[in-house]
Amino acid sequence: TFSGGWPNYARVLVEKVSPLYAVPFAMYIAGIIFAMFRIITALFLKDTLSIAAADADMVIQDKMREKHAYAMKLKDFFEAADCNCDGFLTIDEFESVLEDERITTYLASLELDVTQTKLLFAMLDDGDQRISVDEFVKGAIRLKGQ
Questions:
Q1: Are 106 and 98 in contact (CB under 8 A)?
Q2: How confident is the model at residue 34 (pLDDT cuts 50, 70, 90)?
Q3: Residue 69, SS3?
Q4: Model pLDDT for residues 52-102, shown as the tens digit of each residue
């Protein structure tokens, strides 16, 4: 169809046999051209969708990296706040650490509201009156909504 030779074949049919052969031949040519455009459009669409899927994967990976970096910052804070290095924070340790304005500002930069210390401790604690590093990190991530 795109070769340009079809008018030679159509002219013979139309001029020597019958002019009515022009109608099905024109419909055939139109159908082939339509199909070719559909195939080309489908190929472009396929490439576009595969790029969009790769973008979604990159967004997911970026979010996972952000969550990991956030967890590492929380872990570093916990290790600095754990005064007796036993791997746990008690309510007393937690309150004494949060008395420092620099620390509360740092936690605010991590989007943690530390204005109500006892409530925050209760939300992070699993009931044993002390917070492990895992409880702290998981609870803080849950409070942030990640």
A1: no
A2: very high
A3: helix
A4: 777 777 888 888 998 899 889 888 888 888 778 888 888 888 888 888 888
Point out which residues pair with 130 in neighbouring strands.
90
**Which distant-in-sequence residues (6+ apart) come within 8 Å of 29 by Cβ?**
1, 6
Q: CA quadruple 97, 76, 57, 59: dihedral positive or negative?
A: positive
| Planar angle of CA 103, 107, 111, nearest 5 degrees | 160
Whether 32 contacts 1, CB under 8 Å: yes
CB burial readout 3-41, b (16+ within 10 A) else e: eeeeeeebeeebeeeeeeeeeebeeeeeeeeeeeeeeee
